[in-house]
Amino acid sequence: MTITIAVIIFVLAMFVGLEIITKVPTQLHTPLMSGSNAISGITIIGALLAAAGDGPVSIILGTLAVAAATINVVGGYLVTDRMLRMFRRKT
Questions:
Q1: What angle (nearest 5°) sits at the alpha carbon of residue 17, between those of residues 67 and 39?
Q2: E strand spans, 1-91
Q3: What would the pLDDT profile of 5-40 be if each residue is shown by its tens digit?
């Protein structure tokens, strides 16, 4: 796969993702965020495998991918927890 095809697929995936996310009703955001956090956990495993590759470029890009995926998972759980706290009964 050439770099041109990879960039085209990436741009198309961005547009499709944007269209899908904007059509999601507000009531479904919390369950979908929990599901996407699980998927991001899988992304961390892939990033760890990339960081264990040969060569300095693979190590640098893999480390950046691990950091980005970790920030995504932690941020997703924080947002989900905050949203769920909004629905708790006041004592």
A1: 45
A2: none
A3: 888 998 999 999 888 878 877 777 667 777 777 777
* 35-61 core/surface letters (b: 16 or more CB in 10 A; e: else): eebeebeebbeebeebbeeeeeeeeee
Measured distance CA(22)–CA(32) in Å, rounded: 13
Give the pLDDT score at 22: 82
Please report which residue ranges of the chain form alpha helices under DSSP H.
Answer: 3-22, 29-51, 56-85
Gap between the Cα atoms of 54 and 88, Å rounded: 49
